[in-house]
Write a structure and sequence with these properties.
mainly alpha; DNA polymerase, domain 1; 4 domains; two-stranded parallel ribbon; 18 helices; 44% helix
Length: 365
Amino acid sequence: MLTEYQRKGLLYLIPLGLIVAGAIFFGSQRRSNPDFEALVDLLSDMPQEERREYPDRPVESEEVIRQRLFRFDPNTIDLRGLMELGFSQRDAAGILNYRDAGKIFRTPADFATCYQVSLAMYERLEPYITIAERFRFQSNNVAAITDDTDLSPRRDSLFLFDPNTLNAEGFRLLGFSVRQADAIISYREMIGGFRSIAEFSECYQVSPEMLERLRPYIEIAPRETVREITLIDVNSADSALLCTVSGIGSVTAGRIVAYRQRLGGFHSIDQLAEVQGVLERNFLNFRQQIFADISKIKKININFATPQELSDHPYIEATLLRRILRNRQLNGNWSTVDEMVKDDTLTATQAEKLGPYLWFDTTEN
């Protein structure tokens, strides 16, 4: 016969035993649940900051992760499939949103344009990417990828092309990413076009492997020989006229005009070497086609110019500006650039560079 005390203890032990048994049962179910095990596997590549809610995540080797990979089409794979490939739920959802916005992955390299796809992730998955036929570029659309060149399709996705006329879509069709295509075009404009396959290979987006693959298909049209060269005044030409100079592309032309405005004009064509993006080989090429009309230089009235007018000039840095303002206040007006050298306002080098832009008027307008 149980005492009153023993009966009360039994009443507490029975529910406690049931709770422990249930915990053991459901814990074993959780470990044997394939969905749970898959989720644990999926978290293997997740960055540390995304794992905070999964502190007991097992560590997997690269070999184990690769054994879990499978062939997939980024145009049709679902959220779970992306997570099985190693993407976090957030990144997988971002890829699907990118696709829902109208993005079509026409080549494996297109998949790398998603910011959720890191370079390391793309290199791991690239061998498994399979683009369905309906998503690929069709051969009868190849000729439309350039505005003024009729490109003849060749085997696979390659075709004859001139890197001087191909647009961004054409470079993407050859296997370059969106960022690489844009960079190649910017480089082409900066150097004024590719004169040879060797110059094309100097573009850092063109790897040796890519060049070897594309070399049989590159056809660079010879440039027309200019029989009579008309020199162009770099101090009055606009961007469009500068682009007619061999070796000057649209990007470089815009930079030349912008720098000319800051200077007040070029007093020597050698100053073009100071323009951002002007390469030595291009400068040596186009310097024979231009001249600088120094009568068009806009000069600074050094005795009365405002601090803002002085600081706008690229040759007057902050230290020199303070020295000019201080000595002008202490010594009064200057009559020549030599006087500015004598009172230590300018060094001989500064006087040589800045002298052509200075106007010594002792009467304020």
